[in-house]
């Protein structure tokens, strides 16, 4: 019986030991993916900001500028692209809506972001755009890959339509979550005017005729939970200027917007709670179960070898049979 039990335990040990790397390196990269129908929104605020009054073309201090960002998964578009891309694709239709303290629109910039559901690498397909302008992204945007590494990444800047490094600056703890901190600086760069302007009758084309140009710089900061690759918090030190042209009169430049943009507190709390729950699911597939199966396999192997050694140990000597004395022959 010991020999039979040891063989069963050995088979189970081999099974769990083989399942450990299979789960981590084969199943996990295929199972872990961003759902195609995901929807999320985020509200950010810049308090004590500077904002351009287009009526007087002067910069004024305001109590608050609000930025509402939404990302909506377009399932129909992702399925259409998947038929030719031969991989799982996510299409996010995004909108960045900026409003002043009076609730009026400052800018409205739509965006379509197409990426691989597993790796978060950009997928180039018809419809990829920022504010109606076709773009060809390189690098990530909005979300880091699952199992984010301690290294620099390439990050796409939608305002400037360029890709630049975003640097890993160390590990931190944010609201009880261990995160990687990343920072990117976009130097002063000439950028296009939004297609939807805050003043009726003013268009990017009419502004271009005056010779006035729009410039932008930002310091972008992200606190990223590395297992899920999801940012739990973000900030931007953002500045925009209008420069030159007859629109500004005799001035060389005027501030269009300047402020320290931060996530609103209620969205910070909900984002941290969501990421914590998602982290547990991803960690089960990437770490807890693979390591658990490996330890279980080693334990079963040790028990199997122990039982096999016990079965091979010599037993007590068998007792000698007592025989009746034979009669003496005459």
How is this structure best described in words?
The chain is built from four helices and twelve strands; from the N terminus they run H-E-E-H-E-E-E-E-E-E-E-H-E-E-E-H. Strands 6-5-4-3-2-1-12-11-10-9-8-7 form a twelve-stranded antiparallel beta sheet. The protein is elongated, with a radius of gyration of 32 Å. The two termini are 53 Å apart. Strand 8 (162-174) and strand 9 form a beta hairpin. With 330 residues, it is α+β, with helices and mostly antiparallel strands.
Give the tally of β-strands.
12
Our measurement of the CA-to-CA distance between the termini, rounded to an integer number of angstroms, reads 53 Å
Percent of residues in beta strands? 35-45%
Helix content: 25-40%
Class from secondary-structure proportions: alpha+beta
Largest sheet properties: 12 strands, antiparallel
Major sheet strand order = 6-5-4-3-2-1-12-11-10-9-8-7
Helices, by number, come to 4
The rounded Rg comes to: 32 Å
Mean residue pLDDT:
87
Name the overall outline: elongated
Low-confidence stretches: none
Can you write the helix and strand succession as a string?
Answer: HEEHEEEEEEEHEEEH
């Amino acid at each position: 019986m010991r020999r039979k039990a040891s063989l069963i335990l050995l088979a189970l040990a081999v099974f769990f030991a083989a399942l450990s790397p299979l789960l981590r390196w084969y199943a996990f990269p295929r199972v872990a993916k961003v759902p195609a129908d995901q929807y999320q929104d985020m509200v950010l605020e810049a308090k004590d900001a500077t904002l351009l009054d287009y009526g007087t073309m002067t910069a004024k201090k305001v109590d608050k500028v609000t930025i509402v960002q939404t990302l909506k998964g377009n399932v129909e578009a992702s399925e259409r692209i998947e038929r030719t891309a031969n991989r799982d694709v996510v299409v996010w239709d995004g909108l960045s809506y900026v409003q002043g303290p009076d609730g009026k629109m400052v800018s409205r910039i739509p965006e379509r972001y197409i990426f691989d559901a597993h790796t978060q690498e950009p997928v180039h397909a018809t419809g990829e755009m920022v504010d109606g302008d076709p773009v060809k992204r390189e690098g990530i945007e909005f979300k880091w890959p699952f199992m984010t590494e301690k290294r620099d990444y390439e990050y796409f800047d939608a305002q400037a339509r360029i890709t630049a490094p975003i640097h890993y600056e160390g590990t931190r703890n944010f609201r009880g979550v261990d995160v990687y901190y990343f920072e990117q600086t976009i130097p002063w760069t000439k950028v296009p005017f939004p297609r939807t302007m805050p003043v009726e009758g003013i268009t990017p084309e009419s502004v271009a005729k005056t010779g006035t140009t729009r410039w932008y710089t930002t310091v972008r900061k992200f606190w990223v939970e590395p297992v899920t690759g999801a940012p739990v918090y973000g900030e931007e030190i953002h500045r925009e200027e209008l420069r030159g042209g007859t629109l500004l009169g005799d001035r060389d430049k005027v501030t269009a917007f300047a402020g320290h943009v931060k996530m609103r507190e209620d969205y910070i709390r909900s984002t941290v709670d969501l990421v914590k729950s998602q982290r547990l699911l991803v960690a089960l597939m990437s770490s807890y179960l693979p390591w658990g199966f490996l330890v279980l396999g080693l334990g079963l192997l040790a028990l199997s070898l122990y039982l096999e050694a016990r079965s091979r140990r010599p037993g007590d000597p068998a007792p000698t049979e007592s025989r009746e004395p034979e009669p003496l022959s005459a």
